[in-house]
Amino acid sequence: MSIENHKMIVSESIKIEQCNSNIQIINSIRNLIINKYEHLFFAVIVHGSVGTSEVIPYSDFDGLIIVKDIFVGSEELNDFKKESMKLILQFDPLQHHGWFQIKESQLQNYPQFYLPFEVLYHSKLIFPVLPEIEIKFKFNVDEVDYKRSLKQLISSIENQSNSKSMRLYELKSFLSKVMLLPTMYYSAKMHQGLFKKDSFLVVKEDFTEEEWSCIDSASLIRTNWNYKLNPFQNFIMKRPERFFRKLTKKFISPKVSDDIKKELNTEFHKSLKLFIKKINKDIFAN
């Protein structure tokens, strides 16, 4: 890493290796790009548990597309997103977000608040089909507002936590946000990014056992995640169109099991409130 002090510009170079995993979603997306869409992209990258080959039933698909500027907003790019989302929903019918996207020119003014470059140290390359690629990033430290991103995350969690009728789709979104709190807290406190998995170990000692209990409960649910779809659910939940995603969210996805409800009890919500209170005190009190 190099820093141009007079402008507070961080320059970073990351080498990302080809993803050689046998996970079907990787091969399917790579083949789709090669066959129809390779001209659109500077690079296509997978991160998260798929990128580290630690896939479990809870895993969703976290992918970054770096789009050549000329194709941003194009019909071809929209077609790629629709076709690739069909593949992603085959992998995870509860997928609650799309691709992370930046345009190639943003590598010179990287949106660090959007997807911290530190996450990409644990990523793998889907396209181009090369042994590795070196990606160079630049961003202005003074323009990165980690606190704002954390505040938005907390607000979203608090709004969802009041819901009494979550189905599995919404629950997964909620739990994923809760488990993102440690890394967002770290970023706001230390003013740099950190891989989500690493953040649990790094920041745990900042919290009491009661405060941290909600993270342990969310992690346990993640580890034991399991559900079955009936034929109707299987059809609806793997359709990428907005109408079907709304149906999935509100009506079609499975109900929350009794085992999960036991974890998401009064003590969980009490712990979550204490956890957020501690974050607010440490980050926003001054």
The N- and C-terminal alpha carbons lie at a distance of 30 Å
Number of helices: 12
Biggest sheet, spatial arrangement of strands: 5-4-3-6
In the CATH hierarchy, what is the architecture of the largest domain at level 2? 2-Layer Sandwich
Radius of gyration, in Å, reads: 20 Å
* CATH classification class of the largest domain: Alpha Beta
Specify the structural class.
Answer: alpha+beta
- Main β-sheet: number of strands, strand sense, barrel status? 4 strands, mixed
CATH fold-level name of the largest domain: Beta Polymerase, domain 2
Average pLDDT over all residues: 94
The tally of structural domains comes to 2
The beta-strand count equals 7
Order of helices and strands: EEHEHEHEEEHHHHHHHHH
Shape: globular
Helix content: 40-55%
Unreliably modeled segments: none
